[in-house]
Amino acid sequence: MTAQAMATVAGEFLDALDEERRALAAHDFADPLRRQWTYVPAWRPGAPLLGLGRAARNAAHRLLATALAPHAFAQAVTVMALEEVLDLREDGRGRRHSDDYHLAVFGTPGADRWSWRFEGHHLSVTATVSGEEVEVAPLFLGANPAAVTYEGVAVTRPLPLEEELARALLADLPAAHRTAAVIAGTAPPDILTGTAVATDPLEPYGVRGAELTGSAAALLGRLTSVYVDRLAPALRAPVEPGKLSFAWAGPSERGLGHYYRIQGPGLLIEYDNTQNGANHAHSVLRRPGADFGAALLPAHLATETPS
User: Fold this and answer.
1) How many whole angstroms from its chain centre is CA 175?
2) Is residue 30 within 8 Å of 87, Cβ to Cβ?
3) What is the pLDDT of residues 67-108, one digit of tens each?
4) For residues 141 and 230, is the Cβ–Cβ distance under 8 A?
5) 149 forms bridges with which residues in the sheet?
6) Which of 173, 204, 248, 304 qualifies as a FRET site for 82, CA 20 to 30 Å off?
7) Half-sphere exposure of residue 304, counting CA atoms within 13 Å on the CB side?
8) pLDDT confidence of 307, banded at 50, 70, 90?
């Protein structure tokens, strides 16, 4: 039913566009742009939300909502709204706008295989549809600022559990497991995979989930579920903490740059908060070997190299 819902709403979106915007939105499924994504301010394919009529704009948001759980959809639109906060902080130098997000459709909605991507600064969601099967990956959510506070209390914080559960897990680890989990004293400046094709596991692995028991194992499962549960319920895969690993880089003190990753069979999660005084977070859910629906598609499409 998710594939059908996506096809219906994507068709409504394209039908609501004028000729010029439809030309921006509609691409061939084989277009290399289908697998070229970015989470930084840049040119990207698709029709921009800015200037869309009400019907097209609503359809764009409804299509995004077919892939995401309600709470993750709320996170996504909050990330978009933060562009206005960031624009004020920059005195308009970056010409940022909360409608500077694009929706691109690759192929014909409802065909044997097609895809769509909703993307802009700090938000990228790609869904690939093959028959009734849907793969949503990569799924990136970031936030700058990661938190807007008043008297020390966050009034806006799109990714709270992503940080708090990771900190709780790190604090709960016994000394030996914590030593294994902390792979570096300094966090990298960004997620390590960036927008490259995610295939091989990242090393070192950190602490293995199979070694954890009790509350630590439960916290690893809960943290992983925060990312998996971003997806609409019908699109989620079960979490098996025993098959995962957790790695942390950077100090544990709040306000300092930190990074972590979780990985296991067919799963990679990365989180980094180092920029702007550790108030600028990046997080991503990826499916190594299956991003952009690679596992759903014929071999020549699954292995094509973006130009």
Assistant:
1) 32
2) no
3) 999 999 999 999 999 999 999 999 989 899 999 999 999 999
4) yes
5) 154
6) 248
7) 17
8) very low
Contact predicate 224/162, CB 8 Å: no
Token pair of 81 as six digits: 């709204």
Q: Per this entry, what is the length of the chain?
A: 307
β-pairing verdict for 153-156 and 133-143: unpaired
Question: Does 70 sit behind a cis peptide bond, omega within 30 degrees of 0 on the bond before it?
Answer: no
> Which residues lie below 8 Å from residue 279, measured CB to CB, with a gap of 6+?
144, 145, 146, 147, 273
Asked if residue 170 lies in contact with residue 178, where contact means CB atoms within 8 angstroms, the answer is yes
Bridge partners of 207? 246
Cα 288 to chain centroid, rounded: 14
> What residues form DSSP beta bridges with 7?
none
The encoded tokens of residue 110 equal 């409802």
Contact between 76 and 46 (Cβ < 8 Å): no
Q: Which two tokens stand for residue 217?
A: 């194992």
- Taken in order 62, 55, 132, 108, is the CA torsion positive or negative? negative
In this structure, how many other beta carbons lie within 10 angstroms of the beta carbon of residue 20?
A: 9
How do strand 101-106 and strand 26-27 relate by DSSP bridges?
parallel
Q: What predicted TM-score, i.e. pTM, was given to this entire model?
A: 0.95
Cβ–Cβ < 8 Å for 291, 136: no
